[in-house]
Specification:
The structure holds 2 protein chains of 2 kinds. Chain A is mostly beta strands. Chain A has 4 helices and 23 strands. A 16-stranded antiparallel beta barrel of chain A has the order 1-3-4-7-8-9-10-11-12-13-14-17-18-19-20-23. Chain A has a 4-stranded mixed sheet with strand order 15-16-21-22, with no helix packed on it. By secondary structure, chain B is of the alpha+beta class. Chain B has one domain (2-205). Chain B has 4 helices and 8 strands. Chain B has helices at residues 2-16, 18-23, 25-34, 39-58, and strands at 73-75, 78-81, 139-150, 153-158, 163-166, 181-187, 190-194, 201-205. Chain B is elongated and about 40 Å long. Chains A and B meet through α1, α2, β1, β3 and β7 of A and α1, α3, α4, β3 and β7 of B.
Chain lengths: 425, 210
Amino acid sequence: MASLTSPVARAAAYLPATRKTLITAAVLASCVAASTASAAGVDVGANTTVGGELMADFSHIQLQNESASGQRVDTAPTGNGFDIKRLYLIVDHKFSDVWAADLTTDAQFSTASTTTVTTPTGTTTALTNQNTSGGATEVMIKRFYLEGAFNKLFVLRIGSYNMPWTAVVESNYGYRYIDKVTTDRLGFANTADWGLHASGVYGANLVNYQLSVVNGGGYKNPTRTKDVDVEGRVAVNPIQWLTVAGGFYTGHLGQITAANENFPKNTATRYDVLAAVNIIGIHAGIEWFQAKNYKTINTLGASAYGTSAIVNTALVGPVDDKAIGISTWLSYDFNSQWQAFSRYDNTKLSADVNPNLRDEYFILGGAYKPIKPLDIALVYKNEKVEHGSAAISGANANGSYTIGGATSSRYGRFSEYGVYAHYKF
Amino acid sequence: MRLPRLCVLGAVVWTTAAPVWAADSFAAGVLTCAAEADRDRRLDCYDRAVANYTAGLTAGKRNPSAGAAPVADTGAGATTAPASRGSGASRPSGPSAPAEPTPPPPARPGRLDTSDPAAAGSNAAPVDAAAKPAPSNRHFFGRIVSVDYFPDYVVVHLDNEQVWKQVSESPGAAALHTGDPVTIDKSFGSYWLAGPKGEAVQVQLETPKH
């Protein structure tokens, strides 16, 4: 308090009596305010702040997959419900003008599950998680990094951070809270991963880049593997309203360890191109990608997409395959509160093995922003996987589901309509 | 037990003086400072408020808004406005008045409280503390004089000398151009900057560089 009274006392000499009492009252009020904050224990310091982001929806989903005999069967997650798609809690701290750190947590609902693991002697089933209560919402780290901002041309982040490609697509697309971008939905790109991330900007955003050296398994899987993967992106804005970007990925997606490093294996590679326009409220874009040796189908007859194209067994090598797809979007801001948006994706998932296996997806909606931190949208989604099936990451509570038919001659269709919400603070 | 008596006295004074506060922006400014939890900032706020007031006395003219929380029209078409919410539509400011020094804000705005780490090597101008918002100022107008681009965010310089940093991803950032009129609204604890077209961008006010 002594430090406060000194300047106040000096000033008070100039003031009428009423002013002096006001100053005194102010000082006392400040005392009360300070003690209240201390008691609450919420003082996070001058350079630490807390934020958050929530993506949620209430919708009706209908997923019908054809059986081998051609019968349409209602499949989970068909039904009505409320989903928390994402819930991020964000803590930032600044150490100095150069150094800073960030922690962002994510959450998902999880039940006990298993996965097939390749071993030197074949394959085995491993428990990936176990919840004795039958299921639980688990919290995980999405971003956790130390940032060194040495120059606009070179900012280094160590830890888990946004991956180069997904970040640039999401920033141009603008409706991440409605759904993931296509490479993320189909499992060809991670949104964040553990490693080293360098980024920079030249000029007035004329050129920007990011280069990441990561483990390859994504932010949910920080496991050390045999080698690291690399993803890069360069984006150019030749004029203010136009963005053109290119990206690549190469690596083993965290699937090669000392246990299977001598197995026959493929290297996954992905190439991406994007062109986007953002002018007078119009947002339009097109993304093209080719993902080689990420995944393939199990057999031609079943055409269930999802088998690793990286590694198989010691004796049986992986199958070469590639996916080729495009994603297009168009939205318009009528004013600062109302928008309309649409998107259409079309992907050949197994261009080399089953070229007929195709995923087709579109969304249509209108969004309203009652206050700036909150978006509310009325959305219709439709997706069809034909000539086989594929696991899609999306829909309810950070989970995935299979769309498609039981054989390579069958198909599945997913549709959803509902209200989506997005809240940031 | 001197403190409780002082507290009671303060409460009495506070109550009886309420009509005065409403009419006196100086008092409002001082009380705004009192809400600042950080001791150093609070002290700085008091010093500025008192200095402004005494400067006004010395000049022989009692400016009613001297020492008040920043309601500054700092010229060049940039003006803060009363706490209005809703449309978010931008509009250019009215005629400008001479800049008026005001105390710094009592609370940290935005999600991050950091001067831009990468701005050390940029052309980002130091921010005048007078340009920082107080809780009573939830709505600002300005015109963009420059935009600095960094990896993953932009820093927007306004003609009222405020500097706002983007703190979360938004395609709206790409739609911000030099010369655009913008509004900044405080909503649910964070600040949102909106240009004439495009989505609002979550921002924070840059910490002054002394």
